[in-house]
Every structure is written in C-alpha cells, then in structure tokens.
Task: structure prediction
Amino acid sequence: GNSVTQMEGPVTLSEEAFLTINCTYTATGYPSLFWYVQYPGEGLQLLLKATKADDKGSNKGFEATYRKETTSFHLEKGSVQVSDSAVYFCAQSGATNKLIFGTGTLLAVQP
Amino acid sequence: GAVVSQHPSWVICKSGTSVKIECRSLDFQATTMFWYRQFPKQSLMLMATSNEGSKATYEQGVEKDKFLINHASLTLSTLTVTSAHPEDSSFYICSARTPRATNEKLFFGSGTQLSVL
Result:
C-alpha cells in the first residue's frame, strides 16, 4: 500500500547550516505530497506542498521538489535558524484522499 | 488562523482504566475530525474519521469497541480509550477539517501523550 519513509532523527545542526531531510514515498498513482511542521507545544501545520511531478513547494525558506523518478520529496533549507527547531512530517494524500504520514524527524538547531 | 485545542496534553493512568481525550475546534465548525496515533519510531497513523452526528469510520486494525469516538457537536470530538493497557501507550493527535475543505486543509491539535502503567 501507500507509504512514506523519512529519515530518522534527531537531526542536530548549528545555526546557518544547510538542512536536508529525506523523504521517499510509495504510491499507486500520483499523490500530492506535503511537509508538515510541529513546533513545541503546538499542532502540526502545513509547511509546503506539491501536487504534481517537478512541482516545487516553498515556504519560509524551505523547499521541496516532487521527484517522480526517484519517488522523493526531500525538504531543504539553505540556512537554518534556532526557531526552525521542530518536528517535520512528510506526508502524501493517499488513494482515498486521506493523509499518510511518515515518522517525523526532529530537528534541533543550536545557536 | 483556525485553532484546534486538544486536552489533556499528557496523561498517566493505571491499566484497566478508561481515558478520555477531547478535541475542540475553537473558531470554526468542524464537520469532520480525524484521530491519529503514533507509537515510538513509527509513522503517524490514522485511526478513525469522525463525522458530526454519525458513527465514526475506523481504519483497518483499530478496535472500535476499545477506542470510542463521539462527535456530538460541530466543535467537539472525544476519543475514549477504554480499559487501557500498556500497549495503548502512544501519542494521540486529532485534526479537524472545515466544511467543504479537502483533507489536505486540516488543523491539528497539539497531541496527547498517553502512558498506561
């Protein structure tokens, strides 16, 4: 069935470092892909999305490109800040339009 | 923006007792709410879909008699873990969808960490 696999955390970076969080998916058909972020004490919120192959989603300096050939949707940011510390979830919309999530990756950015 | 409030944030209970988790949409009417759980190092998994005024739809492998869901109003859904056991210890998250919105446009609660002793 459809699934999402993302890199296991935690990911610890220094401020201004480059961030990559890997995400791959398995799906029948062509799902929409998402990154959600959960800041401490808050609910998940949509960070960015892409709805078709080669689309790039971007928000708050984060980017992810929908790669059909590698079934990937890796999250990147050129220069992270302490305020980016959070848990990041990769997700896809499945055949029934329900969201299918990965395990989440904890990002800790140190000053 | 829309806010979903989930309580409690964490709860510790004895094996065999029941625990109720509340999920409220504070500034919108949520015709549909979802309940998820996440075991350590595993994916966030959908447990059930709750529509206001009707019975919840449970995902495969989720016991409906153990995880009672009530969605009696447009702003409140509750999940009751009945006769909880240590294997039910998990992180539970609710989400709510505004009317006519797609399942992509969800608002999430902050989650409840349940520990069953």
Summary: The interface with chain B takes residues 3-4, 8, 32, 34, 36, 38, 41-46, 49, 89, 93, 97-104 of chain A (CB under 8 Å).
